[in-house]
């Protein structure tokens, strides 16, 4: 009987080592998964940061353009008032405005000077025709942000089990 007890003890000694090695492999895989996820999230947040900075810069450019338009409209109002001219005619002579259903609009698009996928901010202003110098000059009717479409030329979608057909 002693011999069978000794064999049982010898068999159990190796099982613990195998379990420890298996546990170490599982922990290493778990650690690599966490590391990969963390690096991916860091990369994505860096891209988001750059994207937001670009849009904030564009919004600053839009604010400058709106101030320029407002200043130009104020000057044209004063000119029309001093020369006793029709305000709409003065606007039409000096600005690129469009008329739609008796309302007058100014459109402009601010975009990045360069980049892979250019970002745009499109603005539509409805002019307020009021002779009063202190009155508001326009109302923002549309303010939209957009980015150029991605090109998927290098990516080929298809059946992964069929041979490549070029």
Describe this protein's structure.
- The chain is an alpha+beta fold and 166 residues long.
- The protein has a domain at 45-147.
- It is 54% helix and 19% strand.
- It contains 2 helices and 4 strands; from the N terminus they run ααββββ.
- It has helices at 2-82, 87-94; strands spanning 98-100, 103-111, 119-127, 138-147.
- The protein has a 4-stranded antiparallel sheet with strand order 1-2-3-4.
- Helix 1 (2-82) crosses helix 2 (87-94).
- The longest helix is centred in the N-terminal third of the chain and has 81 residues, at 2-82.
- It is rod-shaped, with a radius of gyration of 34 Å.
- The model has no long low-confidence stretch (mean pLDDT 82).
Tell me the strand percentage band: 15-25%
Enumerate the spans where pLDDT stays under 50 for 5 or more consecutive residues: none
Q: What share of residues is helical?
A: 40-55%
Biggest sheet features: 4 strands, antiparallel
Distance between the termini: 73 Å
Helix count from the secondary structure assignment:
2
Structural class, please? alpha+beta
Shape: rod-shaped
Strand arrangement, major sheet: 1-2-3-4
Order of SSEs, N→C? Answer: HHEEEE
Calculate Rg over CA atoms: 34 Å
Q: In total, how many beta strands?
A: 4
What is the mean predicted local confidence, pLDDT?
82
């Amino acid at each position: 009987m002693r011999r069978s007890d000794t064999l049982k003890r010898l068999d159990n000694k190796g099982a613990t080592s195998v379990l420890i090695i298996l546990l170490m492999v599982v922990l290493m895989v778990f650690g690599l998964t966490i590391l990969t996820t963390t690096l991916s999230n860091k990369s994505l947040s860096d891209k988001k940061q750059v994207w937001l900075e670009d849009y904030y810069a564009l919004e600053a450019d839009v604010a400058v353009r709106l101030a320029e338009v407002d200043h130009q409209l104020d000057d044209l109002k004063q000119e029309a008032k001093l020369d006793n001219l029709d305000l709409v005619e003065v606007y039409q002579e000096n600005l690129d405005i469009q008329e739609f259903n008796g309302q007058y609009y100014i459109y402009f698009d601010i975009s990045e000077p360069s980049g892979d996928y250019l970002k745009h901010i499109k603005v539509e202003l409805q002019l307020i025709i009021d002779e009063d110098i202190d009155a508001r000059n326009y109302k923002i009717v549309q303010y939209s942000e957009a980015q150029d479409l991605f090109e998927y030329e290098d990516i080929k979608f298809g059946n992964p089990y069929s041979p490549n057909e070029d």
